[in-house]
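Hey,
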Amino acid sequence: MFKLTKRSYPIAALLPILLLTSCGGESGVPGVPEFVTIATGGTGGVYYPIGGAMGSMLASEIEGVQSGTAETTGGSVENLKLLGDERTTIAMAMNDAVYNAVNGEGDFKEPQNVCTIGVMYPNVLQVVTTEATGIKSFQDLAGKRVSVGDAGSATELMFNNVVTTLGMSFEDFGEAQHLPFDGQTTAIRNGQLDVGAWVVAPGASSIQDLASSEDIKVVPLDEESLNKVTEKYPYYIATELEAATYDGQEQAVPVAATWNSLLMSTNTSQEFVGSVTRAVHENVDALASGHPAGGEIAPENITDAVAPVCPGSMAYFKEAGVEIPEELRPS
């Protein structure tokens, strides 16, 4: 088990320009799109600010790219569908959703043509309530008003996987809602919701916001529950949310987590893919300027990918001295 350090996602309609900019109108450089879009999440999460910083960096670092835009979306599942349909250039997604995408399972009717260019940081399942509700365990969620995350998000996916592994279902809740992160914060604060689910890096701004006015409690997963979850889903890991990650959170909390991947389409120019791979790994400080978690991307993280590495990325990782496992090598 490792510890995560302290770190400071409504389905939103993608801008109509998305259809034009995903693969981009070609720039003056062959294979390089003039406009790059990055499918992220909601503004209250961590993907969005990292995506904004990444877009600016790519426009600066790659010849031919005129602009890079972070697009608000419902999260990982939607991002992977957009990428599979080539309606975005780059997608951020949690590894549980990526696993389903490349295997054509869950929300995906068929395997998606996506590949990995990097692995960023672990996302943590943070089930948040207030001390006033008296909720102390996952079993206490029965009969409560619970937001399970935005519809189609990886928060909903991971939360559902954990809940069902523990012998429960969303139907056991008194009311199951699909709210974005900021909406969960508002509803809990206004007494309209008992519990919200977040799958984000520690220190999410929307949870920090809630903790600024409420005595919050992050619901723990006991050791037995964590063992059940990680044994059933190999892309989930057991970890701790460090004490003082949020105001008033005095104790470390045992939680489940999963890595976040950066992906591109296998149909994209692989020379361009290689340029993006190099840029994101060699400009870590630029990504961290969007959110500290962006600074955790590293070449060696690629071994935690669940989708094959993009062919165009292989040269960079070889140069970085990283041995790509056989199962992650492009076919």
